[in-house]
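Example record

Each entry pairs one chain with its bound ligand, NAP.
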Amino acid sequence: MILVTGATGNVGRQVVHQLVGAGHPVRAMTRDPSCAALPPAVEVVKGDHETIDRCLDGVESVFLIWPFHTADLATGVVAAIRRHARRIVLLSSGAVRDQPDSAVGLSHNELEQRVEQSGLAWTMLWPSTFAANALWWRGQIRSGDVVRGGFGALKMAMLHERDIAAVAVRALTSDGHDGTRYVLTGPEALTQVEQVRIIGDALGRPLRWQELSRDEERQRLLADDDFPDSFVDALLDGYAQMLDGPPPVLTNTVEEVTGRPARSFAEWAKDHAGDF
Ligand SMILES: NC(=O)c1ccc[n+]([C@@H]2O[C@H](COP(=O)([O-])OP(=O)(O)OC[C@H]3O[C@@H](n4cnc5c(N)ncnc54)[C@H](OP(=O)(O)O)[C@@H]3O)[C@@H](O)[C@H]2O)c1
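Structure tokens for the complex follow.
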């Protein structure tokens, strides 16, 4: 049995679908099973990181995501997993290496240390920027052809959640991945201006970017009910730091692990056209 946490989210939902598609028994953890909308073959259980112990009976492998910006729960969560399971695949973050002093870098680093010290067989995933972050523009794109934002020139190696999930599934279900950190990126580095144009191509609409100052972007995000206020400054600090640094280094890890090249952002935009 494989326990998937974050099973209703960007990556976890894909992990569930791919595991079920390959015939593996899957248990999905969610805080609200009534809204999970997962395939019938999945055992959906109510739980969260604080109550994870109750979801772990008979589980051999765990896909763990960390939806927090602190590691407060890390010791308890990892100890609970260790009591039941043998293997863990952790959706971590490249911020551990690239932005070690950020909240995301610090919390994931501490979590990784707990996992490494646990005695579990582990694989850490270090994904680049999720293509799914473009969904943050959904409201703007639904209401017009202009996307207003900051740091339009910032290049990101947008990574399709299906590719992250495909690597996770290999690490959960086959040997040879233990003790490995996989640095995962999309196949190309694209500015935010280019991302908006590509989404426009997928929608058949002339979308264009309108640049905001950092302060204007901060105000815009704080006023956006769908974006967590607590993450605004961390995000903008991260963007500022990335803009000052070198462009993202691309890897072939998705293809090396799965045998299939990483999907393009254009492919992601086509897959998600209905979401906009
Ligand atoms: N976005 C990026 O560019 C990026 C890049 C590198 C790494 N990462 C890392 O990827 C992870 C996020 O992955 P994701 O986008 O797949 O996750 P997600 O879609 O944001 O969330 C996954 C699920 O976690 C549960 N959840 C959300 N907030 C929670 C909370 N406060 N307490 C308990 N459960 C909560 C929700 O499930 P239920 O409501 O069903 O319980 C949600 O569907 C983070 O650790 C992030 O640091 C992200």
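The chain is about 40% helix and 15% strand.
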